[in-house]
Sequence to fold (325 residues):
Amino acid sequence: MSESHKFLKSKTVAIVGCPFSGGQPLRGVDTGPIHLVEAGLVEQIEELEWKVKFDGHHEFEDVKAANDPPIGILKNPRLVSRVCKAVSAVVGQHAKDGHLPLTLGGDHSLAMGTISGSLSMYPDVRVIWVDAHADINTIASTGSGNLHGMPVSFLLGINKRPPPEHPNASGYDEAMAEYSWVKPQLTSDRIVYIGLRDVDAGEKRILREHGIKAFSMHEIDKYGIGRVVEMALDHVNPKRDKPIHLSFDVDALDPTVAPSTGTPVRGGLTYREGHYICEAIHETGCLVALDLMEVNPSLHDAVAVSQTVAVGCSLIRCALGETLL
Ligand SMILES: NC(=[NH2+])NCCC[C@H](N)C(=O)O
Ligand SMILES: [Mn+2]
Ligand SMILES: [Mn+2]
Fold:
């Protein structure tokens, strides 16, 4: 390849459009991918001299469970599981073809599928999770039962059985059976977080217990984004010789920058900080998969929506090599 990319066979992006909202309660996040593509994303990527494969958004018609009552506290458990399993197969196939899967969300539960897909091709993949939230709740720790707050716990395989008197104890076996396709292949030293600022008490305990490295907004204020990205890469990929999956939740950005998202949290990344992360990861030559999640065009007015969609497109371009000069 002309550019030094360490893992891909060809400079091809495979867009996996996932209009899916089952991991959280708000409608509209399922139209995120449609808006991103309509804003000209394909052409923008082609201009960066990538080939783009895109055969339309996934509809998941075959997996829409007619009857999907909660399992214990978990909401839409079968639908989320089956959609993620389908996404995992698609992302995994693109990765095996030597292309770079770009998944457009849709809510962040989808990352269970995208990262499982990356792991099937690259068992030693490193995950950089950019988000206001840790999305690491377990069956025992979740308060909301929304699966977009839980994908990392399944990928790590840390869902322990709650004691029988625990309020979330019921349904544990059924839930674990439904999610048994998720191979707990990710290890806690191969994921790093950037941008956290709304982490549930139970999640803080999980992060501590498993020694998971996280750079919250506090560390970004303290060290600056340049040092933080360098430290994050040094933690998961010190020699810059391992593949990287970047899972970017648009709510990592400050709501003034990306307002149209379901769970905005103030005090987030600036426009430049978000873009810097993508640029610096591109520079490693290690990026093998990218997720851009939680764009919800049904929230806020048209100006806010087009602002959020435009930011989403430009984050993607930077991760794919767009530079300022
Ligand atoms: N992907 C997201 N926006 N996640 C928000 C998660 C919020 C909360 N921690 C929960 O588990 O419900
Ligand atoms: Mn998220
Ligand atoms: Mn989030």
About this structure: The chain is about 35% helix and 15% strand. Residues 131-133, 249, 251, 263, 294 surround manganese (II) ion (ligand 3) (CB under 6 Å). The chain has one domain: 12-320. Residues 77-96 form the longest helix (20 residues).
